[in-house]
Amino acid sequence: MATKEEGKSQEKDSALMEKYKEAKLTRRIVFIITSTILLLLAGTITGAVLFVSSALKPVDPDSQEIIEVEIPYGSGSSTIARILEENGIIKNATVFKYYLKFNNESNFQAGSYKLTQSMTLDEIIASLKTGKVMQDVLSITIPEGIHVREIADRIAEKTDYSAQEILDTINSVNFIQTVREKYPDLVTEEILQENVKYPLEGYLFPATYGFSEENPPIEEIIMPMIDKTFEVIKPYMADIKNKGFTVHEVLTLASLIEEEAPDEENRKIISSVFYNRIEKGMPLQTDPTVIYAMGEHKERLTFKDYEYEDPYNTYVIDGLPPGPIANAGVSSIDAALYPPSTDYLFFLATPEGEVLYSESFEQHEKYYDEHIANRD
């Protein structure tokens, strides 16, 4: 018969055995759970690696079928990736988008592309960047310095639309709203001022534009011109703000420079003249604003013309007109922001194309008598 002490010892041993079993079971459960989690993680990681690896490869390396893909103007990487996935050119839009970001790829061109499922991602990117597109069936060239009315005429010559239809679209509330929503930092409420003749004057960048359709919608013809203006203006945005200007003011001044100056060097000097006159509170008195105000081209302005009452006529108003009078190129925009330091207050274009600058009205008058008045 066990003594009392022996009984207590057996109970203690039994309790220790139970704790040992529990600890062993706990460790086994923890091991199983940990192993399961690690296996799941390994499986997930392996699956992810295989998925991405597959998505980076051509959809069908043996396919020779040509697939026509349309990349609209203004498309970002997300839109392009979605379009390529929808057309079966890539396997996964998300992977493609991050591939572009990882490789710092950008500057894709809009247009109609002929692509295949056998193309690698790098080949697709190269095609989208170099603009290897279907041949344009419509090409419209917008020269520097022309007005929105002339742009409408040029488009009308190449399409089935009338110039008035084009102007009506450009000036329409719906189209202007669409443009403002797309480019709120470029196209502001300033274009809607009461005296502005054409809200988007100055915002249609001069360049050559190609289209894959013979008669695309008017909005699709005009929007690339605004896209290009934003592309050109964007690098100047910080300086425009720092100088206390608005984009509208810069484009307005650039249009005056564009209309007055025959070349890049003179654009900068003429810009300095405008700055000097504004600083001294003098009217700009630039002839192209009179012509724009009157709405008709004249070889020679009369004294009566200079007195023409209109918000655009810089002979009867102070400062800049309500908006641009033409669509300026890059060099005029650059000159509008970065004029050289001069003391000139007057300039005169001679019949030979030379531009003469003066610091005083007396000198300016002398140049006028020598090169203009005495030729009459």
In N-to-C order, the SSE pattern is: HEHHEHEHHHEHHHHHHHEEH
Number of strands: 6
> What is the tally of helical segments?
15
- Average of per-residue pLDDT values: 87
Globular, elongated, flat, extended or rod-shaped: what is the shape? elongated
Radius of gyration over alpha carbons?
Answer: 35 Å
Structural class: mainly alpha
Helix content: 40-55%
Gap between N and C termini, in Å? 147 Å
The biggest beta sheet reads: 2 strands, antiparallel
Major sheet: order of its strands? 1-2
In short:
This is Endolytic murein transglycosylase. The chain is mostly helical. It has 15 helices and 6 strands.
How is this structure best described in words?
The protein is mainly alpha-helical and 376 residues long. It folds into three domains: 67-130, 2-Layer Sandwich (Dna Ligase, domain 1), CATH 3.30.1490.480; 138-234, no CATH class; 235-375, no CATH class. 52% of the residues lie in helices and 7% in strands. The chain has a two-stranded antiparallel ribbon. A hairpin with a 5-residue loop joins strand 5 (346-349) and strand 6 (355-358). The radius of gyration is 35 Å and the shape is elongated. The model has no long low-confidence stretch (mean pLDDT 87).
Give the tags:
376 residues, mainly alpha, Dna Ligase, domain 1, 3 domains, two-stranded antiparallel sheet, lyase, cell membrane
Outline the fold blueprint.
Blueprint: H1 4-55, E1 67-71, H2 77-86, H3 93-102, E2 111-115, H4 121-130, E3 138-141, H5 148-158, H6 163-171, H7 173-182, E4 208-211, H8 218-233, H9 237-242, H10 247-260, H11 264-279, H12 287-294, H13 303-306, H14 330-337, E5 346-349, E6 355-358, H15 361-371
Antiparallel strand pairs: 1-2, 3-4, 5-6
